[in-house]
Specification:
The protein is mainly alpha-helical. It has helices at residues 2-7, 10-26, 30-47, 50-66, 70-87, 90-106, 110-127, 130-144, 153-167, 170-185.
Amino acid sequence: LQLLEQLGDKQNKANTLSNMAQVFLTRRDLDHALGLYQESLQLLEQLGDKQNKAALLSRLGDLYMSKHDFDKAKESLEESLVLREQVGHVDGVAYSIVKLGQVAKARGDKETALSRYRDGLAIFEKMGMPRESEQVRQMIASLEGGAVPNDDPLAQVLAQARDASQRGDVQSAIQYQEQAVSLARGTGEG
């Protein structure tokens, strides 16, 4: 970071700050991560880099979701969506739309969440992205009340991990993910 500052390389400095923020997110130091993201965002704005700014705004939306600041999460994700539409980043548009659905779900707005999920799903399907399509289908099914078959314990544990993560309950999400790994390995522990 110091070398990039000395060289005046704003683009790589912005990328490095964003990567550093990811480290602090992993450590659950959300405030430090937020500061680094905001510094990176300022540099990207100075550079006029809409594509990287859109990606960073999406990550900021995730961070605000973790902090349960749904207004700022929505604001960041909406700005990300606009930028991704401007630069023609179609799968990024779908990701932003789905994340906006997650914000709506977290706020208890089921209808908006379903609408967003369906819009994102349509884009993923049109682009031929089966993994993403299936994930969104599961989100829709979860909201509609029929997400996971009772006879599939791995799917149930994964759904519990996803729900805990969306609620910002990191500890439970980790525990469910550990159970899923055990089930997937066939040890059945958990």
